[in-house]
Amino acid sequence: MNLPVAPPAFDATNGPRRRDHADTGADIGAGCGLVLLELTALACDFGLWFLSGFNLDPDRTVKADSLWGYLTAAAGVAAFALVAALVAARARAFVTVVSQIVMAVLITVVVSAGAAAQAHDDTSADHGTRACHAVPAAPRCG
What SS3 string covers 24-90? Predict the structure, then answer.
């Protein structure tokens, strides 16, 4: 027995309806490309900081530059990752959103740790005199 085949009542695949998510291949490609771009920027940034204190002359002692400028550049990369995550969320590219949020969090942790280390280095370099302004009752601030 042959039953009649009715045409579909509504075909949502070709209409103006918004898709639920971005194409998975393009989403993964964009996420990986952005992560690679951000890692390259961070490697250049901290590589320049490393090279500022690198010297092959054994008779000369070289102190590396202050981290503050390099940390500012790294914070800019974290801000870029956050903006990219917001744009990807609007495009419903979930893989890119997750990868960019993870990168933003990791870069923020690295910047926070670097800021704490540089602040400690700054206070130890001036033998705690700056700490006397912040805490005048400290034992060495006589």
Answer: HHHHHHHHHHHHHHHHHHHHHHHHHHHHHCCCCCCCCCCCCCCCHHHHHHHHHHHHHHHHHHHHHHH
How high is the mean pLDDT in each 10-residue block of the chain (142 residues)? 70 59 86 96 95 87 89 96 96 94 97 93 70 54 52
Based on C-alpha coordinates, what's the Rg of the chain?
26
The three-state secondary structure class of 93 is coil
Contact 140, 124 (CB under 8 A): no
Using alpha carbons, select from 71, 91, 72 the residue that is nearest to residue 31: 91
Q: How far apart are CA 110 and CA 108, in angstroms?
A: 5
Q: Give the DSSP letter string of 80-132.
A: HHHHHHHHHHHTT-HHHHHHHHHHHHHHHHHHHHHHHHHHHHHHHHTTTHHHH
Token pair for residue 77?
């990369």
